[in-house]
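Continuing the batch. This is chain 6 of the set; chains 1 through 5 are on the previous pages. Same settings as before, nothing changed between runs. Recording input and output for traceability.
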Amino acid sequence: MKLVLNDKSFFKECDKSIAKIILEVFLHTYHDVIKLAKGKIDRAVLSSQKIETIMVNDSYGFPVWRNDRSVDLELIRLFRSLCERQELNVVTNDTCEVSFGAIKDGSLLTAVLKEYPLLSFKTDEKWENTNIDVTITYIDKPSEIITIHNFYNELKQDDIDWINALPNEEHLEKYPTPLDLKNNLTVALPNLLFHDTAIKQLASEVQNSWYRLLFNKLIILNDYFNKANTDHFEKDKFPPRMIGEESDATIARFRSKYTFIYNEEPYLIRFHARYTGNSMGRIYFVPLMEQKKGLIYSLTTKLPTVSDPKLDI
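Output for chain 6:
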């Protein structure tokens, strides 16, 4: 996982002293995130523009700041390290558009497609939020709202909890392909059970380009059931908008689509976990709280709903 530099947060009408503070807050935030993440978030930052060229206003930005003798030398070293590791990245997509109010695509699109967090400059109130709710508009599918995690200032408890919930990269690397995971499900995800439908999807439908996004969500589900100590499923224990619950109207209309058999017992799906990337994926599952397990039915497609009845598994 990597940070995506929010290219919509660069500019602010302000004097030199405020611009200097904005740049230094940005660097301190980057430092704190990487330090706390301990390898879960890469030091490389994805940016659509060379960081060393970014200006906060018409007269002050990193090109000026880096030669300012009042700047702390440790911050200069951190800045140079960040610039050395930056990865220039411009993403386009012909099938969807990501918007936040009147702001469209750019780094927001990158963050959504890769499911990476934003790293923002504290230049406007709209970027001073831990969670940024953006709308994805598809050409041939209903739009949906996705939440992007946003780092913009001194880390708060929500930031710490979000980072701590990230899967360990070493665990991800143990199972680099869908087939590796399929062949090691009970070891990799001991608190999840998999229906034959999901197992077949791992074998033939899950693509390498978005497999890590899917695996990431499965790890989060597995960790939840491993630690669960309650008789009811808790949606609020997950990142914002990760878990969706099927409406009564959808279940009433498409009950047969949401019912499946596992070990000769019928189960009704009421929950799904979202993931995006280059797919419109859903993980449909049934919480088995007494067993501290989640029963996974499907991984790769979206079941029909009242608002989108054409979709089918």
